[in-house]
Amino acid sequence: MNENPLLQGLNAELPPFPQIRPEHVLPALDTVLNESRAELKRLLQSEQAPTWQSLMQPMETMEERIGRVWGPVSHLNSVCDSDALRPIHQQCLMKLTAYQAELAQNEALYAAIKALREGPEFARLADDQQQMIEYALRDFRLSGAELPKEKKARFTEIQMRLSELGSTFEQHVLDATRAFELVIGDEADLAGLPETIRQAAEQRAREEGKEGWLFTLDAPSYIPFMQYAENRALRQRMYTAFVSRASEGELDNSPIITEILALRQQAAAMLGFRHYGDYSLATKMAGSTDEVIGFLRELAQKTRPMADQELEELRAFATDKLGLERLEAWDITYASEHLRQKKYAYSQQDLKPYFPEDQVLAGLFAVAGRLYGIRIRARDDVPVWHEDVRFFEIFDTNDEKIAAFYLDPYARAHKRGGAWMDECISRWRRPDGSLQLPVAYLVCNFDAPVGKTPALWTHDEVLTLFHEFGHGLHHMLTRVDTLGVSGIRGVPWDAVELPSQFMENFCWEQEALDLFARHYESGEPLPDALFDRMQAGRNFQSGMHMLRQIEFALFDFLLHSDFDPGGDTSVQALLDEVRREVAVVIPPAFNHFQNSFSHIFAGGYAAGYYSYKWAEVLSSDAFSAFEERAIFDPETAAEFRDHILAVGGSRDIMDAFVDFRGRKPSVDALLRHSGITVGP
Ligand code: ZN
Fold first, then answer.
1. Which letter does DSSP use for residue 595 in this model?
2. How far, in Å, is the centroid of ligand 1 from the Cα of 34?
3. Residues with active-site annotation
4. Strands 435-436 and 182-184
């Protein structure tokens, strides 16, 4: 009867991407939201004491139906942004936020779940079901369930406004990135740039109907330009455009930042938290503000001497060898790349011929296969959203299908930058007993094939792919049947990068690289000498890099815990202060990187950016368990799968880690992997 493809029902294997039109979106979302409202009302009118079956199971079904409509729409907005979809997406966000706020403030629902928690059935429920109930109650409290009536309304208003602001922030970044392009007409200005980069720029220009070579602020264009372009004035222009995105005119994010911070502070205070930092930690693995700030400062302090040395070396090199008397911000990437080449005599570009797309994918799948016994096979009869997208299925040791994923590898117009994994469908035991298998989206923005040359990726891009696939395995190898805690659901932000960063380690192991790093023309394996230099270069400037991440993390955390958005100190002043404390390189005054810091203003990393480093401690330490035995040790891999990947958010992550490692995490492995030696 209903021909809206988004309302195909719960049991569809995959979203019907080719059939989805912008006009389907709002009616479909309205339908599922209204159904859910009616269903919830019915559930809460019951005279019976709530049980898992009578309350939580129907709630799961409602959540899944909404996810089935919203998931593909949100995904399409990220990978195929269009003028038609954009305002609809925005409207949907408002409707969803309103719905979620209704749920969060539904006193009868809160009371029903509390009754379930306190009732006799609770003790008999499975661990993951109990965990989901605990999370639900916690989230109720964090969403203002205990607030008096008049405060609740204000709280909802704040949440809606924050959602809107985050979305606008991100849109400004996207528009500002798109608004800039550098068209080079004189080939002399390409001096220093490798041939593949020139070709890609030429193709980009052609696609836009322009003469010459076109460079943009998207990473695959921007980064190599900053690494290789000898023309210093053009590097300065690119750098200036990049770091001042969304900092002036209509796209200025500064007022949005101030409003976001003020509203977050207000909301946290309403719930009785000292500040947003404490609010954020209520759902994290880290215990307290002091613990987080102390952790970051300790890492900064241990890293500082090494970073100072690295900068000194870079300055001397830039002066002596490159004739750059004063090392400017737009010289750092360039000088670093040249220093890296001099010290290790290779560049990311030298490595690219050894990492053609098909081999990298086969290698990634082989690594996962050797670790977990899984097999991954391509399927080409699945409808996708773009011709470049591919689809794969995962089979377990007994050849049973357990999961699937889409891979959308290349950068293109109307696609959000960066790389990410997202849930398409989550593992779930449906009320009828059937099992829904998890499906993931893996999205990257790598170079596409150019002419007859296959897509060749840098080692950094290979790392990115392994990273995102690690998130994918977390989502896809889950054995949890309860929707709210399966896969990455319910996993704290500061532990969610554990499986992804863990996978990166394999890109540094000869035994793993031997599986796939071969020259795309000659078939020669990665030469030993190149591998050795790559290894030696792994921790090139790792001190400076570590401090940069700590600078972001400390800025983020202090901004949300020790900063008054209405006070005399500006956001910029706080950032400057953090830089004075932590950074070895102080950027120019026009650097307003915070205005495009989507992680904390449009993503989920507010007062949580430290999570990257926190999770690196976990992932380094987890990998060291493999180093102690063998990197493909099946027993260790089975334990990692059982204790970490399979459990999702169904148990306390610190307990899970201790079960795997036999002890609490230690920072030693991270410092060792980063080449940072700590004095006695
Ligand atoms: Zn990640």
1. G
2. 35
3. 468
4. unpaired
What is the bridge-based pairing of β-strands 428-429 and 435-436? antiparallel
Distance 45 CA to ligand 1 centre (A): 42
CB 514 within 8 A of CB 356: no
Q: Which of 129, 118, 12 is nearest to 65 (CA)?
A: 12
Q: Distance, CA 496 to ligand 1 centroid (Å)?
A: 8
| Type of residue at 446 | F
Query: Which residues face 453 on adjacent strands?
Result: 450
Structure tokens at 152: 């609740």
Beta bridge partners of 436: 428
Domains of the chain (ranges; CATH) run 5-146 (1.20.1050.40), 180-244 (no CATH), 352-536 (1.10.1370.40)
Task: State the residue for tokens 């322009």.
Answer: 210
**What's the token pair of residue 90?**
């925005």
- Distance from residue 419's CA to the centre of ligand 1 (Å): 9
Crossing angle of helices 22-45 and 107-118, in 10° steps, is 60
pLDDT, averaged per 10 consecutive residues of the chain (680 residues), comes to 80 92 96 97 92 96 96 96 94 94 88 96 96 95 89 91 95 95 97 96 96 95 97 98 96 97 97 97 91 90 92 97 95 95 80 95 97 97 96 97 98 93 97 96 95 93 97 98 96 93 96 94 92 86 94 97 92 95 93 96 94 92 97 97 96 93 88 75
Instruction: Collect all residues with Cβ–Cβ distance below 8 Å to 209 and sequence separation of at least 6.
Output: none
How many angstroms separate the CA atoms of 631 and 629, rounded? Answer: 7
Give CA angle at 44 (124, 125), nearest 5°: 10
